[in-house]
Amino acid sequence: MGRVLPTLAKARAPLAAAAVQRDRLDRVPVARRFDDALADSGLFPLTATRVDILQINLGKRCNQTCAHCHVDAGPDRTEVMPRAVMEACLAFFEREEVPTLDVTGGAPELHPDFREIIVRASATGRRVMHRCNLTATLLPNYADIPALLAEHRVEVVASLPYFQARETDAQRGEGVFEESIAALRRFNELGYGQGTGLVLDLVTNPVGTYLPGNQRSLEAHWKRQMMTRYGIAFDHLYTITNMPISRFLEFLEKQDKTEEYMARLVAAYNPAAAAGVMCRNTLSVGWDGTLYDCDFNQMLELPLAAPAPRTIFDAVRDALDARSIVTGPHCFGCTAGAGSSCGGAVA
Amino acid sequence: MSDSSSRTGERPSYYDRHDLGRFSEIGRGSPELAARFFDYYNAVFAEGALSAREKSLIALAVAHAVQCPYCIDAYSKDALEKGSNLDEMTEAVHVAAAIRGGASLVHGVQMLNHVDDLGM
User: Fold this and answer.
1) Distance (Å) from the C-alpha of residue B82 to the closest C-alpha of chain A?
2) Chain B residues within 8 A of A212 when measuring between CB atoms
3) pTM, full prediction
4) Distance (Å, whole) CA A198 – CA A156
5) Chain A / chain B CB contacts < 8 angstroms
6) Backbone angles phi, psi at A128, to 5 degrees
7) CA A244 to CA B15: how far, in whole Å?
8) Which of A60, A232, A306, B58 could cross-link to A73 by cystine, CB 3.0-4.6 Å?
């Protein structure tokens, strides 16, 4: 793989600090505040329904430094979920009978206990999802991961911005596309995406400052393209909007497009998407055990609002249902157009 | 540009990219005709025998043929959002260029006819 750029943290960029990001977003002039948009839709205050998905972020270590990464993950990041936090997450997942565990990062594979997490979580018989950047599975010492995931019937949700090298490499680094295709072929060989029950989903996000298109029609187009060009099959395509935080915010700032992009998101606000945002049924756990409504709030260091529990160590499901969700200008990213979530469009 | 300022002052140029976002204001003079146009417009671009993605590429080509900067702006973005890529979009523009060029050239046959009629 070619280009691996330093993270914002490594470069000591001002936007590496969550507080600086929040301040910048708060200063963007917008046609209306997010909470006002919610109120106009009869959704204010936004509240959680119940915890259907426990999303655990194993840390910020990654073998890539994608230009749009909202985590600012990369090889130079050292934040890794300690074992005690991992144990508390698994205990909560088992004890509270959460239907789905969603494992994310960084590149989750790089966590020293990743294999153990997969084995123990799968043993519950409940749904386990692994968010995969694909190229990490080609690294030395990680080649066993795809077979392990298949053995435990873990759903693989793999990132691929576009079905051509030019666009994908522009966002994720030179050579990433070719390696991603090699990794996808490996998953196909193991039975993923072949109608065997081993689920392989792809996630696409715009390679630029526009919104994702219609998920259903894009999925049909992508399935044809991926099969015709590369002989690769997959199950579902999820569309995700680029969030104006962290490295994508840095990109917007350098291009002087932050205000234009935010205006686009605000103009595309969709009440139906707002009603279905993922924070309503997801609990997000940071590498250090802090609880958040979603992975984006996690990166902006906006923890759960009181009186909800603060960490996974004192999390009880009953205390998390019906909690008030912490919102901000970035939430327009999840409510624009057909909406955006870790599971794709929501409206 | 605000509604009021649009009616006053000297404009920097005939084309302003912000005017694209004001397209719906064209209904200010005749709401009924505008509504009929936009209903038709939306129906044209809906998924049909052609996919919305294919229609977007056709629109991009036509935008270049009629040299509409608003349309080129709108359909460059729309084509990307519908999953098209630079290769496809460039080929669409070449289709427009080929038809435009070919349209001029094929009229050369009329010129030949006149030369034949007028010549000895």
Assistant:
1) 5
2) 81
3) 0.91
4) 8
5) 32
6) -125, 130
7) 30
8) A60
